[in-house]
Design a protein that fits this description.
The protein is an alpha+beta fold. The chain is built from 20 helices and 27 strands. The protein is globular.
Length: 528
Amino acid sequence: MARDNQIIIGIDAGTSVIKAVAFDLSGNQIAVASVRNAYMTGDDGSATQSLARTWQDCVNALLGLGSKVSGLASRTAAVAVTGQGDGTWLVGSGNRPVADAWLWLDARAAPTVTSLARQDVNRARFEATGTGLNTCQQGAQLAHMDRKIPELLDQAEVALHCKDWLYLNLTGVRATDPSEASFTFGNFRTRCYDDAVIDALGLTRRKKLLPEIVDGTEISHALTEEAARACGLRSGTPVSLGYVDMVMTALGAGVRNGQRNAACSTIGSTGVHLRAKAVGDVHLNAEGTGYVIALPIPGIVTQVQTNMGATINIDWILDVAGSLMAEAGKPVSHSDLVARIDAWYAQSRPGSVLFHPYISEAGERGPFVNANARAGFTGLSVRHGFPDLLRSVVEGLSLATRDCYAAMGDMPVELRITGGATRSTALRKSLSAAVNAPIRLSKREETGAAGVAMMAAVCNGVYSSMDDCISDWVTPLLGEAEVPDAAEATRFDRLFSAYSGVRHAMPPVWDMLAAVPITAPNGLENKS
């Protein structure tokens, strides 16, 4: 088949949506199909997802793509898959699920995280992995299961992540990738498992659950006949296992281009902030937080800090406004409220209110870990109105971004951004001023799917190296640099000092609030 007619499919399995995206071999996006999936939450802090349904949702996304792209099966040169990171997807005999997956949102491992973090060996574990302990991670979740529900692990034959589970269904191969393997159970310098890390987690006797590590830029496996029939593709099509979605998104959005390392922030439901670095340039902070995650480029990793809550803070304050308007007999849609963000921001008074965006009930994980952390406004007075509150939430996200980059060393020289919220001019200006660096918005629509498809392009010889692929797939889609306003950058310097001071003073208050019983509207105490 002619090269200009061939397609690479990138699968990006997020927490709430699975997307299948078709690209030509030069990186042009042809079509996308998506399917909403679902997860369940419980009062015990659980957040779980059905393995069987997740696979079926992936199948449906691929079938949907086939309805949009003529001759998809015959034109597909390769498939690649990435997905939500962390979490625990247990598989047993016959490659059947042992139980619903524990997602990265699951908070049940919190007491085990606290216990492990107090051990003397935890710093050595951090020095190897470059990754702080938190409830999101498979290592912490497996350790908690081993302590509390060992029978669950007794039934399992392998512990996978979301993308690994889909790869197993596509190829029949149990595997994980170098990124998740090394930041959870290994060493970011070697991209291999590390026995000292596994022992520090108390999981030596469970080591057999860890799958083979496969690099999708070097090795692919064939799509099975069963999967091909289900998905409407050809059996034997090469499938690449991608790295975790955070770095795939950053790769597709420009965390590296022109053989130079950069920084990239994704402002979505969570905030993900990454800096591409040579291994020797990694700065491990004293607090022991963040991630070091390998990129599919030899010797290059990303140092990462992640906020539990980014745009969910904006969603929250808009939902409050929408509820009040509905009660006043003026109902308005969420999308209409989103469209008014920039106008409200322009009406507000700059710098008069601080907001710490810890709205997630799971607390915060970057650049500090505290399950009891909660959002709050500081500096309110009677002269403040809704536009001031909205502005403080937007600026709070920008200050949280700066807080994350400060934990990784110096501020970035240039920041690439992606995520739906970055369409807001107010947010972009705020981000640029907060880090005092030019920002460039990626015009790539599906950055995660593009990043993983790039791995398949390299694996199958379309490009000789990832940097060569980046020059075609990424660089042309970077927007013009948006330079920070000097006066705003100075104002954000002052704001950040106050933001940091409040943040460091709050943990005792958060702990006291967490100990207060929650009373339901009927007056009964909520024991959860």
